[in-house]
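DM from R.C. (forwarded with permission)

"hey, sorry to bug you on a friday — could you get me a structure for this? deadline for the figure draft is monday and I only need the backbone to look sensible"
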Amino acid sequence: MIEGNAYVPYAAVIDRSDVEPGRSVSGTCYLAAEIISPSDRRKPSSSNRGKIAIKLAGYQALPMCDVVLLIEQWVVAVTVAIRDAGGWITRRLTDPGERLILPAAGLDCRVVDLYARTSLARARRTA
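My reply, with the result:
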């Protein structure tokens, strides 16, 4: 049973067997990906942190979650948080050609590949 506030990431890798019929939440999440919108930058009235920082902390608190991707909506940039034995390692990737490699998720692509078929990718092709 999931209690308290729950945020639903834009995309997630979950354990299908953990999904309860008729519910849109899961107790297991191995990878969470958020597309950061302008509202994610705002601070809820009850907090001194932005909504995206609260979401990130929530995903990192999930015992099975090992990767969180925070994908910027208006610029080519992604923040990658990966859990290791010592805690969370966070990197911000802003070079469109930089490789995003997540072996546990079977992902190996360029940062710009996350923006395929978006106005940001089209702008890069015409520049």
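R.C.: lifesaver. The beta strands are 11-13, 31-36, 67-72, 78-84, 87-93, 99-102, 107-110.
me: no worries. The chain has a mean pLDDT of 85.
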